[in-house]
Design a protein that fits this description.
Blueprint: H1 2-23, E1 25-33, E2 44-47, E3 53-55, E4 61-66, E5 72-77, E6 80-86, E7 95-97, E8 107-109, E9 114-116, E10 124-128, E11 151-155, E12 164-168, E13 181-184, E14 187-188, E15 212-218, H2 221-224, E16 235-240, E17 246-261, H3 270-283, H4 290-302, H5 317-321, E18 325-337, E19 341-353, E20 360-373, E21 378-392, H6 431-437, E22 438-458, E23 461-480, E24 492-515, E25 519-542, E26 557-581, E27 585-596, E28 605-616, E29 629-643, E30 654-660, E31 663-670, E32 679-692, E33 697-709, E34 712-716, E35 727-731, E36 734-750, E37 754-764, E38 766-771, E39 778-780, E40 783-785, E41 793-797, E42 799-802, E43 809-812, E44 826-827, E45 835-839, E46 845-855, E47 858-868, E48 871-874, H7 877-880, E49 926-928, E50 931-942, H8 945-951, E51 955-969, E52 991-992, E53 999-1009
Domain TonB-dependent receptor-like beta-barrel: 446-964
Family: Belongs to the TonB-dependent receptor family.
InterPro entries: Beta-barrel_TonB (IPR000531), Beta-barrel_TonB_sf (IPR036942), CarboxyPept-like_regulatory (IPR008969), Plug_dom (IPR012910), Plug_dom_sf (IPR037066), TonB-dep_OMP_SusC/RagA (IPR023996), TonB-dep_OMP_SusC/RagA_CS (IPR023997), TonB-dep_rcpt-like (IPR039426)
């Protein structure tokens, strides 16, 4: 009986093993190209749903053991479309793969349409959503840093709402707009700063980065010419996500980040400060001996000690001004649809506590993108976005009550008094009093919307109409209590409202038809109309019965009120045609005619043509099938773009109401110039796109020249002309930008388990003013406009160090000799030294390096950015590194290297209290701002497919990301990118003044998809 049972079990076991072995078997084959049947080595072959895989050998052959007859093989290779093939009962599976032009960056948005990058004749940088996801920052512009050649993106400082400067291929204007045109889902956006407190406010905070599908940056004139009059500074096209047919998917993104300043500076502590001030006072010559000077110091410092003995106080004011930050992000989106309707709906929340005390941001946003196919030929849709952003703001950099100026306080002053109140007797106004007894709240509500309809008359002819709306509504409430610094009345409240709306409509036809068997013609023609209105009003009230009352209605006196209304409109017609022959010869031409209300009556309309061509040499028979060169395309383009003044009525004579002797009247406020017209930029671009080793190495190289004519300036007029401001806007001046751009992408490793891709971009720019009014220099503060030099070059006296005999600061004379050379002798008399051009705030080189690595379910990516050749001026240095020659501000520890006795070799002069020994504006405070920064890094882990199926989910990923983690620079200030945010873009260009550094942020996040 036992023998029979044992025999039966052995039979069952044998049958099971035979069945398993029958399922698990080997399959082999050869992979070739569809074009010429040549073998493809290095193709990845994976059994779908598993990590079981291999790669083809040098002859394109492979062999793989599969688990069952139901197995599906996935064949993938760079530059070719992925193929999935069911094995069935076959033991041999041969595959032919098609070259995939979409891997050359797929489809890019080019304005009123899309185009395959393989057929582009222009320079367009494309950035996908995967490249910007997981970066915790309020402004989406910060996610683009280091991602596109020729695009310099700078966050002005570390404030959460801080302005972001975007410069594409150099500055192309001096007094008109220097920012690119932003277009979201085909609709123009308003990008005007509406800050009411001096410090700039980023107007694009309303955009949720998680909603962005792709960003396309139009850089050359041919690409941007379709936007005509506003495209001189480039165009940034933002495309938001849409619903896809199929089962609805729900995506949830959660993250929590903590941050701190990217850099701290070393300041004197109590002992160092006391030593310096006693030495400085004695060196001043004001006192008979050391005892007398020490007595003065003792008396002076007692002023700031509050109710403590200053000898027992050692305050780190830098630590008081800064704080640990946190950023909490949460977003959810639902996407799906059927063959008739697709929908994408999202909601997002961000809570951002900044690194500067009292600076916070909270944002809610919601988006709905719906597309509906009404019939076989008619499509309609709507894009709608609403955001609500509340910001607790602080004063601009050049204000005593801004927290970061607290570093100027003496370390012997306590922050608070014994009763807990902030110390009101500090050297300068104590920002803690401002923080406790006042607030500055700004609320921005923004609505972005678009409705569209598209009708297909013929398979090759479509008509599309779009109506877009951008409403920016900002309210500001500012209250200053009676105990706040500089408050002379019993409290003051300020309230303002600004509404700026932009309505636009686009109407255009698209024609796309094959011409014979060898050609294709794509043409777009239409019109667009844009109208913008802005209305603002504000009121100030003084005197409140108690600080508990904060609204203007409770004020005893309405002390001020203002309001204005302004508008502009623009009507445009455009046409663009692209012809492709044999898929290798491409010719494109466009023309746009813009009419704007902001110009003189005879110059309202401007014409903006462009032409471009490309030759895909790799498609020629003599290169087709090359084992080395897989892609080669030459491009050339020329076009004209425009730029408009910041004033809506710059061509008109304006009058305003005034009060005179208690009565009302009219007064001239602006002189007329009916000949005012566009700034006009012509640009030539020559480029080559290339690919090697089956596109495992791809890239592009471009050279451009941009010439801007008819620069808009305020030109001085004779006093006798009786024109307000003694100036009128005129078109006088020109400048040039030229440079190279290189992008290089490589697939370093590609195996079934491990993939590694890298992209490097680097670009140069040389900016030069070629013509100014009458050829005259224009000097503003430490900057100069001069023919033959870059915009806003630094114009300073040259610092020459310290006389080792007596500790005097020395300066280079730099007067002109008879032979035209400069006198390089030195003097200790600052007034005898002449200013010269000593640098530029514009970098010569910018670059970025991004890399992505994946190993099974682990992903890792990083981006480095860098810039070289620019300089930054530390305007605060004239207070921070003077040895008390310019006030009693606390000093950086650089002052410890000061000259103290004859023979000392140093570049820090002798400390002399209230004596100017080197603290005048000079190159002493000018430094190179070269840097390399680890901009962002991300490490993630995704659950394997087998586990996700059990959880009924399609994605679960946990990740860590970092922003601004490392900065390599010789600049000894807070940050090589930080600059003064006082809101005045025409003074102190490239200078910082107690400017907070950006935040270093560590973020942990979770991505879920159901």
């Amino acid at each position: 009986m036992k023998a029979r049972l044992l025999l039966s079990l052995m039979l069952v076991f044998t049958l099971c093993m035979s069945n398993a072995l029958a399922q698990q078997r080997s399959v082999s084959g050869t992979v070739t190209t569809s074009e010429d049947d040549s073998s493809l080595p290095g193709v990845t072959v994976i059994e779908k749903g598993t990590t079981n895989g291999t790669i083809t050998d040098a002859d394109g052959n492979y062999s793989l053991t599969i688990s069952s007859n139901d197995a599906v093989l996935v064949f993938s290779f760079v530059g070719f479309a992925t193929v999935e093939e069911a094995v069935g009962s076959r033991s041999r599976v041969d595959i032919s793969m098609n070259a995939d032009l979409q891997t050359l960056s797929e489809v890019v948005v080019v304005g009123y349409g899309t185009q395959s990058k393989a057929l582009l004749t222009d320079n367009v940088a494309n950035i996908e959503s995967s490249q910007i996801s997981g970066i915790s920052t309020p402004g989406f512009q910060n996610t683009l840093v280091g991602k596109a050649p020729g695009v310099q993106i700078t966050q002005i400082n570390g404030k959460v709402e801080g302005s972001v400067k975007v410069i594409i291929r150099g500055l192309s204007s001096i007094s008109a707009s220097q920012e690119p045109l932003y277009v979201i889902d085909g609709i123009e956006m308003n990008n005007s700063n509406e800050s009411s407190i001096g410090a700039n406010l980023n107007p694009l905070l309303s955009i949720n980065p998680d909603d962005i599908e792709s960003i396309d940056i139009l850089k050359d004139a041919s690409a941007a010419a379709i936007y005509g009059a506003k495209a001189t500074n480039g165009v940034i096209l933002i495309t938001t996500k849409k619903g896809q047919q199929g089962k609805a998917t729900v995506s949830v993104n959660l993250s929590n980040g903590i941050g701190k300043p990217t850099n701290l500076r070393d300041w004197l502590n109590r002992e160092q400060y006391l030593e310096l001030i006693r030495e400085s006072a004695f060196n001043s010559g004001f006192f008979a001996d050391q005892a007398a000077s020490d007595a003065w110091v003792d008396t002076r410092l007692q002023r700031y000690q509050g109710d403590e003995d200053y000898n027992n106080v050692d305050t780190d004011w830098q630590d008081e001004a800064l704080q640990s930050s946190h950023i909490r992000d949460a977003s959810i989106s639902i996407s799906g649809g059927n063959e008739k309707t697709t929908t994408y709906i999202s909601g997002a929340y961000q809570d951002n506590k900044g690194i500067v005390r009292g600076n916070n941001l909270e944002r809610f946003s919601a988006r709905a993108n719906i597309d509906n196919k009404v019939g076989e030929r008619f499509n309609v849709g709507i894009n709608f976005n609403f955001s609500h952003t509340q910001i607790d703001r602080i004063a601009g950099d050049n204000a005593f009550v801004t927290p970061f100026q607290a570093i100027a306080q003496v370390p012997t002053s306590p922050t608070h008094l014994a009763d807990g109140e902030p110390n009101g007797g500090t050297l300068y106004a104590n920002f803690l009093l401002q923080d406790k007894h006042s607030f500055r709240e700004t609320i921005v509500r923004r609505t972005l919307g678009k409705v569209y309809g598209e009708y297909e008359f013929l398979p090759e002819l479509r008509y599309r109409t779009e109506l877009g709306f951008d409403l920016y509504a900002q309210s500001v409430d500012r209250n200053t209590g009676r105990l706040a610094p500089f408050q002379s009345t019993n409290g003051q409240s300020f309230a303002s409202n600004v509404e700026r709306q932009l309505i636009s409509t686009n109407n255009y036809f698209t024609f796309d038809k094959n011409i014979g068997e060898t050609g294709n013609l794509n043409a777009v023609a239409g019109m667009t109309y844009t109208k913008s209105d802005r209305r603002s009003a504000d009121v100030t009230g003084d005197g409140f019965p108690t600080d508990d009352f904060k609204s203007v209605s409770s004020a005893a006196t309405i002390s001020a009120g203002n309001g204005d209304f302004t508008a502009w409109s623009q009507l445009s017609y455009f046409i663009r045609a692209t012809y492709v022959h044999l898929n290798k010869y491409i010719l494109k031409a466009s023309f746009r005619r813009d009419g704007s209300s902001v110009f003189g009556e005879d110059f309202r309309f401007g014409n903006f043509p462009a032409v471009s061509a490309a030759w895909r040499i790799s498609e020629e028979s003599f290169l087709n099938g090359s084992n080395v060169l897989s892609d080669l395309k030459l491009r050339a383009s020329w076009g004209i773009n425009g730029n408009t003044p910041t004033s809506n009525f710059g061509s008109l004579a304006l009058y305003g109401g005034v009060s005179y002797n208690g009565g009302s009247g009219l007064a001239s406020t602006q002189g007329a110039n009916p000949n005012l017209k566009w700034e006009e930029t012509s640009q030539i671009n020559i480029g080559v796109d290339f690919g090697f080793m089956d596109n495992r190495i791809t890239g592009s190289l471009d050279y451009y020249i941009k010439d801007t004519e008819d620069l808009i300036f305020n030109q001085r007029v004779p006093f006798e002309a009786a024109i307000p401001g003694h100036s009128i806007l005129k078109n006088i001046g020109s400048l040039e930008n030229k440079g190279f751009e290189l992008t290089l992408s490589t697939v370093n490793i590609q195996t079934p388990d491990f993939n590694w891709k890298t992209t490097l971009n680097i670009s140069t720019n040389k900016n030069e003013i070629t013509k100014l009014p009458n050829g005259d220099d224009q000097i503003t503060a430490r900057n100069i406009l001069r023919e033959g030099e870059s915009i806003n070059s630094f114009y300073l006296v040259e610092y020459a160090g310290v006389d080792p005999d007596n500790g005097d600061a020395l300066f280079v004379v730099n007067s002109e000799n008879a032979d035209g050379t400069l006198d390089k002798s030195t003097t200790n008399d600052f007034s005898q030294a002449n200013r010269i051009i000593v640098g530029s705030p514009i970098p010569d080189w910018i670059g970025g390096l991004s890399s992505t690595l994946t190993y099974k379910e682990i992903d890792f990516s990083f981006t480095f950015q860098g810039q070289w050749g620019a300089s930054v001026y530390n305007g605060g240095g004239t207070f921070q590194e003077t040895g008390f020659g310019n006030g009693l501000d606390n000093q950086t520890t650089k002052i410890l290297n000061r000259w103290q006795q004859p023979g000392d070799i140093t570049d820090v002069p002798q400390a002399r209290l209230f004596r100017n020994n080197g603290h005048s504006h000079s190159t002493r405070y000018l430094q190179k701002s070269d840097f390399i920064r680890l901009r962002n890094v991300s490490l993630g882990y995704s659950l394997p497919t087998s586990l996700l199926e059990k959880l009924n989910m399609t994605r679960v990923r946990v990740y860590f990301s970092g922003l601004n983690l490392l900065t390599f620079t010789d600049y000894d200030g807070y940050d090589p990118e930080a600059t003064n945010d006082d809101g005045n873009t025409n003074t102190n260009i490239g200078s910082e003044f107690y400017s907070a550094p950006p935040a270093k942020v560590y973020t942990f996040g979770l991505n879920l998809t159901f």
